[in-house]
Write a structure and sequence with these properties.
alpha+beta, 188 residues, 5 helices, 24% helix
């Protein structure tokens, strides 16, 4: 993975990352148009914390709200700047612990793009000195849980009635990954 400087106007602290197939760049509000089909997809959004979006303006507003200790990368293919999805991180304890989340448009499921993109961001997080990355996901979101497990995350907890979402009160499963345990690609 190569790391480059963030382009002018990009979110501060969000470097461009490259993998064999992908270019991850700071996500922009204008990526809402490309990502709206995913955000309006009721099946994809069932495990999200909010209901499917009814308009591209709602997606734009959602993208504009990201800030604070959060940063987000748009997942694009090398040579095509159209967002296929994104990976977002939020520092929970400065210099130590980061939360990670992701979304990939349905037409790219099963291609390995999500694993490749999330792995690149994990490489970056650990290169910056973080000691731990964690993710929380609905226990019934088997695709997300499978991705986390393929990346080497360990199930660390199950919190009952943790989130109130558009589909009701939901449990969450917490997954964690320590820097010393990180290796990609996974060797079994």
């Amino acid at each position: 993975m190569a790391t480059a400087e963030a382009p002018r106007g990009a979110a501060r602290g969000t470097p461009v990352l490259e993998t064999e197939r992908l270019r991850l760049r700071p996500r922009e509000v204008d990526d809402a148009e490309a990502m709206f089909p995913a955000y309006s997809d009721a099946e994809l959004m069932i495990w999200w914390s909010s209901a499917p979006h009814g308009s591209v303006e709602e997606t734009r507003a959602d993208f504009a709200r990201l800030g604070g200790d959060w940063r987000a990368w748009a997942i694009t293919r090398k040579g095509d700047d159209t967002a296929l999805g994104f990976v977002a991180t939020g520092e929970k304890r400065q210099g130590n612990v980061t939360e990670i989340g992701y979304m990939l448009s349905r037409e790219h499921w099963g291609t390995g793009i999500a694993a490749e993109a999330v792995a690149a961001v994990i490489d970056q997080i650990f290169a910056e000195g973080q000691r731990r990355v964690f993710a929380d996901t609905d226990p019934e979101n088997v695709q997300s849980r499978g991705l986390l497990e393929r990346l080497g995350f360990k199930l660390e907890g199950h919190l009952r009635a943790e989130w109130e979402t558009h589909i009701g009160v939901r449990d969450t499963t917490l997954y964690g990954l320590l820097r010393e345990d990180w290796q990609w690609p996974r060797r079994t």
